[in-house]
User: Which sequence fits this backbone?
């Protein structure tokens, strides 16, 4: 059994050359929001969920992106409502949000 039931990684990489990147699409702000929501819902901690930032995940054209392990489900998102849906459906109920999956 892994230490966390779900480990969520948000790409927060900033490209120096001005190319498309998750950082330019507010990824750090949304990651912080997700961390706060997971804590607020008491979903954080060992045996539960962990939300982290990650460097470049090499999916810039599909971004912003996050991935949920252990399943390896990749998502894109547009706003905090999408993050709320991922938290409720995937992290609370184990259901993949197909409309946001990439």
Assistant:
């Amino acid at each position: 059994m892994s230490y966390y039931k779900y480990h969520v990684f948000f790409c927060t990489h900033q490209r120096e050359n001005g190319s498309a990147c998750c950082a330019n699409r507010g990824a750090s702000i949304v990651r912080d929001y997700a961390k706060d929501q997971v804590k607020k819902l008491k979903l954080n901690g060992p045996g539960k969920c962990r939300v982290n930032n990650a460097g470049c995940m090499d999916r810039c054209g599909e971004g912003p992106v996050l991935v949920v392990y252990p399943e390896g489900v990749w998502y894109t998102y547009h706003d905090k409502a999408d993050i709320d849906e991922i938290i409720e459906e995937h992290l609370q109920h184990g259901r993949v949000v197909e409309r946001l999956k990439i």
Helices lie at 27-40, 80-93. DSSP finds two helices and four strands in the chain.
